[in-house]
TrEMBL record, chain A:
GO cellular component, one term: lysosome
Annotated family: Belongs to the glycosyl hydrolase 20 family.
Gene that encodes it: hexa
Keyword Disulfide bond: yes
Top enzyme class: hydrolase
Name of the protein in its database record: Beta-hexosaminidase
EC number: 3.2.1.52
Pfam families, per database record: Glyco_hydro_20 (PF00728), Glycohydro_20b2 (PF14845)
Boundaries of every Glycoside hydrolase family 20 catalytic domain copy: 167-480
UniProtKB/TrEMBL annotation, chain B:
GO molecular function, one term: beta-N-acetylhexosaminidase activity
Biological role stated in the UniProt entry: Hydrolyzes the non-reducing end N-acetyl-D-hexosamine and/or sulfated N-acetyl-D-hexosamine of glycoconjugates, such as the oligosaccharide moieties from proteins and neutral glycolipids, or from certain mucopolysaccharides. The isozyme S is as active as the isozyme A on the anionic bis-sulfated glycans, the chondroitin-6-sulfate trisaccharide (C6S-3), and the dermatan sulfate pentasaccharide, and the sulfated glycosphingolipid SM2. The isozyme B does not hydrolyze each of these substrates, however hydrolyzes efficiently neutral oligosaccharide.
Protein name per UniProt: Beta-hexosaminidase
EC number: 3.2.1.52
Compartments, as annotated in UniProt: Lysosome
Membrane-spanning parts: 12-34
Lineage: Eukaryota, Metazoa, Chordata, Craniata, Vertebrata
The encoding gene: hexa
Keywords, in A-Z order: Disulfide bond, Glycoprotein, Glycosidase, Hydrolase, Lipid metabolism, Lysosome, Membrane, Signal, Transmembrane, Transmembrane helix, Zymogen
Catalysed reactions, as listed in the record: N-acetyl-beta-D-6-sulfogalactosaminyl-(1->4)-alpha-L-iduronyl-(1->3)-N-acetyl-D-6-sulfogalactosamine + H2O = alpha-L-iduronyl-(1->3)-N-acetyl-D-6-sulfogalactosamine + N-acetyl-D-6-sulfogalactosamine; Hydrolysis of terminal non-reducing N-acetyl-D-hexosamine residues in N-acetyl-beta-D-hexosaminides; a ganglioside GM2 + H2O = a ganglioside GM3 + N-acetyl-beta-D-galactosamine; N-acetyl-beta-D-galactosaminyl-(1->4)-beta-D-3-sulfogalactosyl-(1->4)-beta-D-glucosyl-(1<->1')-ceramide + H2O = a beta-D-3-sulfogalactosyl-(1->4)-beta-D-glucosyl-(1<->1')-ceramide + N-acetyl-beta-D-galactosamine
Protein species of origin: Sphaeramia orbicularis (orbiculate cardinalfish)
One Pfam family it belongs to: Glycohydro_20b2
Domain Glycoside hydrolase family 20 catalytic: 141-460
Span of domain Beta-hexosaminidase eukaryotic type N-terminal: 96-119
Length: 523, 503
């Protein structure tokens, strides 16, 4: 970084704030207007009109001397490459005729907590983070601070930022069962997620319509349950590619194998798994939810989840458990006999709970923490709130946190439900902690999730439906709520951010009338 | 060798064009065509097609012969559409058969080629097949349009060309180019270059040069699509004012100009001189015989505030009825276009406020959503005016779910009126206004939703009255669009053999 055209024989102009001296505490930095250019908004920031030109020929990232991470750290080595291209789009090394002002570098330094600190000064910027994941967020922020003038020159302003996420769980759900999403579409989404600082990819990988996950243990599940056994599946290689691509961007992959409902496609490749439905005393030929009465069911689930647990390294696994239709269970005499035997009477929710408890126990022995949709909230640690749209989710939050359960809030962010107009405003004005409960209860809200269910979505319309609409929720989940309470103030910032997404090749749709300097060209 | 005769005509049975399609033959299922042809008979008898042995040929008695640019180009295009991903190489042995396509005009022939291309299908091993088929086909309405709005968002030329491709696949024949409006003026005028230099979002990157416009027009022409330009006035002209001073009405507040501007100033002779010169240019740049003059949603607030406008009203004897002023303006510019030998199309507002418009002016129905447009149709056709129906097809208004069903169930002639009145409905138009649409989401929002209206405008209403029967056909057609590289969104849960790969 160099101040704008300093005479070479003069020393660097004096720094304005102590924050600009490497490794000095940030707090004493003078406060300026918070930067408009970063989405989601950093927690604490100070930027100045003082502007430094950036020269791609002389720009580089470097690990700080005291940094624990050093060359060879795969996550950051890859991130440096990526962010160089993001900061200098369309840059091709050609002329070496630029006059080099100073050494230009960003270096990474050691400690502080989960946070990152970014300080941009004349000649250098320093980024401090405790973990590589924090460092990734800091690089994203830095890349958003850089802008181009009308002549294509790059600039960054003097800036100090201290930043950390408000919630630890900031997820996006993609549904690859109702429509198959090619791996490229998933990877593109992971890129865009990193730009909005999302950190959980909730992969609703299988459901009623299709089973695209190619299991090593049960290859018939996709061979018979996918839309097409060769072209519409995720091979182990595909899955690994998604996981490692996500990891390099600081994103966890949370797989969901939803049962006992939403399993029609499972039945095609695994006989005797689903409950045969009866009509007039004989099997009708139709099948219902997973059959909870057979030991073979639990053996199957144990083997499948053993595989899933080793394929997906994340410590969480999502077990679904939503929308179980009792109609078929009720019709089946074996199920009714089992209910009798277990003393459940005619309460089929007890049967469902029995099933869910059993599979939660299976995942526990695999050292995974279970997440389930809120429908069955008796038996595990972490619940996913999806009911109560539009306004009643606050009641759900009260009720479930009161029971001491941790929750992830998804209800207000089902953005597959499109509407005409600026519906991002609704996502933005959600207040996840605005429910009646104690401070302890509030702490149980570990985050939120944007859901893009797949009834009407595939690779043709996924990206423009997701972005920048999901970015509205991203700011709610990352930033301080008081600083980001105004939708009107957010509007021009989100428009600016959407233009950045376009510039990065993300097919993000417009918020309203207007234009971006670089329109989407990928037609 | 088997001889396949495909009959294809355009209304009259004078076969001026005869195209022989030579196909490779051998045995296989029935492919659907969207929009549904008027009269068709297909059989389970199946002929394999061999790309190596397939060619198009002009019939001996055809008036069109090699050198006909429209069909020469169409043959090339449809070869690739029929045989996607084909690279010359395989040598299959074949016996030859043929299909014949007869049409009165090249434009009819284009529609027939489109139909033929949709009849061809591939089996699981990639072999191509077509079934024995006879089709006689013609459009129900002559005007089947799509409106794109390039003012609220700039659409790169590529996005427009892509839309023209997809329009041809659904047999649309009018591209209504709502090229300028309040937010920006991207049309680069030769006569008034300041209009885009000052009125576009960006004077260099967000404009349509003359070359761009010619490219769109000729690309459309080769696909049998007319380009209908709209220069909407006197409202919707904020962007015009930036590059043309004294064109817009200065608004007043408390007796002095407020700095804001309203609609075009209808009181100044300079206004009409400007319009005459602009429209003279537009008329020569756009060869279509129609020109769209807009005339919708004029806000009288600013006119009312302006003392000069009020004085003009007095002088003209309009009293305080500003609709008379609007009518005066519209009448003047319709007359200008008449002298340029163009037929004017205007939004219905012009009729609503004023009936003294030239006989041949076409009115564009946009009011009366959701169900009242039938009243509008009754009222305006009763006055003997020709109309284009757009009201039920504002598909920029998105909603969750299968909203194509609403577009499909529109009955354009189901309004109270005589047979003569019904004949005045010359067609319909799907509108994709640009408030929330640009090149990022245009294609998936437009397709296949617009194709629902396409069938209503092309096909026989009785044969296509069932939405449930249309559903699997439209799903199939949507997969064809994907296969052709059109980013058409899904209708519901499911899959296509070839998913969209353009990510």
């Amino acid at each position: 970084l160099a101040p704008h055209r300093p005479p070479r024989d003069r020393p660097t102009p004096p720094l304005r704030g102590p924050g600009c001296r490497p490794r000095a505490p940030l707090r004493r930095c003078p406060r300026y207007i918070p930067p408009l250019r970063v989405w989601p908004m950093p927690q604490i920031s100070a930027s100045s009109p003082e502007q430094y030109p950036l020269n791609p020929e002389a720009f580089y990232f470097e690990y700080g001397r005291q940094s624990e991470a050093q060359p060879g750290c795969s996550v950051l080595d890859a991130a440096f490459k990526r962010y160089f291209s993001l900061i200098f789009p369309d840059y091709f090394p050609v002329t070496k005729n630029f006059e080099l002002f100073h050494d230009i570098l960003i270096f990474l330094d050691v400690p502080i907590s989960l946070k990152y600190n970014l300080s941009v000064c004349a000649g250098q910027a320093s980024l401090k983070a405790e973990t590589v994941w924090g460092a990734l967020r800091g690089l994203e922020t830095f890349s958003q601070l850089v802008y181009q003038d009308d002549f294509g020159s790059f600039f960054v302003n003097k800036t100090d930022i201290e930043d950390f996420p408000r919630f630890q769980f900031r997820g996006i759900l993609l549904d690859t069962s109702r429509h198959y999403l090619p791996v490229q579409a998933i990877l593109k989404t992971l890129d865009a997620m990193a730009y909005s600082k999302f950190n959980v990819f909730h992969w609703h990988i299988v459901d009623d319509p299709s089973f695209p996950y190619q299991s090593q243990t049960f290859p018939d599940l996709s061979a018979k349950g996918a839309f097409h056994p060769m072209t519409h599946i995720y091979t182990q290689t595909d899955v690994q590619r998604v996981i490692s691509y996500a990891r390099l961007r600081g994103i966890r992959v949370l797989p969901e194998f939803d049962s006992p409902g939403h399993t029609q496609s499972w039945g095609k490749g695994q006989s005797d798994l689903l409950t045969p439905c009866y009509k007039g005393g004989t099997p009708s030929g139709a099948f219902g939810p997973v059959n909870p009465t057979l030991p073979s069911t639990y053996q199957f689930i144990a083997r499948l989840f053993k595989e899933v647990s080793s394929v997906f390294p994340d410590s969480y696994i999502h077990l679904g458990g939503d929308e179980v239709n009792f109609f078929c269970w009720k019709s089946n005499p074996d199920v009714r006999a089992f209910m009798q035997k277990m003393g459940f009477g005619t309460d089929f929710t007890k049967l469902e709970a029995f099933y869910m408890e059993s599979i939660v126990n299976i995942t526990s022995t695999l050292n995974k923490t279970a997440i389930v949709w809120q429908d069955v909230f008796d038996y595990h640690e972490l619940l996913h709130i999806w009911k109560g749209v539009p306004y009643d989710y606050t009641k759900e939050l009260s009720r479930i946190t009161k029971a001491g359960k941790r929750v992830v809030l998804a209800a207000p962010w089902y953005i597959n439900h499109i509407a005409y107009g600026q519906d991002w405003r609704k996502s933005y004005t959600v207040q996840p902690l605005n429910f009646s409960g104690t401070e302890e209860q509030k702490k149980l809200v570990i985050g939120g999730e944007v859901c893009m269910w797949g009834e009407y979505v595939d690779a043709t319309n996924l990206t423009p439906r997701l972005w920048p609409r999901a970015s509205a929720a991203a700011e709610r989940l990352w930033s301080d709520e008081k600083q980001t309470s105004s939708v009107e103030k957010a509007f021009p910032r989100l428009q600016d951010f959407r233009c950045k997404l376009l510039r990065r090749g993300i097919q993000a749709e417009p918020l309203y009338v207007g234009h971006c300097r670089h329109e989407y060209q990928g037609i």
